[in-house]
Amino acid sequence: MDATPPVGALLLCRAEPETVRPVAHLLRERMLLAPAGDGWSVLVPEGRPWQDHRAGTAEAAEPVDRVLSGWATALAVGSTWPVLALWWDGDRAGYTLAAGFRRPVGYVWLADGTPAGEDEAMRTFAERLGLDPVPDVQALEALTGPGPEADAAARLRGLLAVLTRTGLKLPAGLDPGRSSDVLTAGAGGGPEAEWIEWTGWRDAVKVELEAVESSRVGPWLRGPKARALAGAQLAAGLPLALWGAGRRSGGWVFAGALLIVHGALGLAYDRIRDDGPGGEGGGPA
Fold it and tell me: How many separate domains does the chain show?
């Protein structure tokens, strides 16, 4: 019988699945995508990076918290919505909240529920998610105090309980503390769940461009301001990817690669639309 403690993670995105889908493809990992309430989606990773880490394989592998931090950052820098990563292993559990280019904020609990983070993180967490500064912050700060009967998984459930006030409602079976295999098996049974799988850069770019084309923001991704933003994404993405490679951090490499892809797509979209029907000046500058 395998006595190894369960290791797992969830990525909560404050956006609808159709908005999350094209960005999630660029993580190059197999994940389940499902709606998670009003204005939320959840990505359930299959868990290969940290499963390889636990098994001690020769492949590049990382602890679950480092992987999730990189993935959350990668998703957030390529979008306009925040991403909350929840993770746990046999020793600790915690979260990382990423929003745009701002520095991610996170908190950690030991397995028995002992707080091991900074109280200020909870207040920043509440502010970035637009939570109520009084009752919601009080509920979050209670998670940083003593609680001999609350282990790390219970602390994460308490965090999720606060987020239900924002419309979050996780599908059945997605309970912190379970292994990745159990989570994907549970989430996969939902009627609206779908697998996100990497099929190559060509397909990923096609999916991204189609999503932009069908969205309301497409016309705004043109002109000098859009080109400047795309150039900034390219400029930031390359050193971030190299830094991640130097640290052998797949998550941060993905974050840099995603910035590079979004920058390239922004420039490509502006050029394609200028060369297409309507020509120069067809969108806002």
Answer: 2
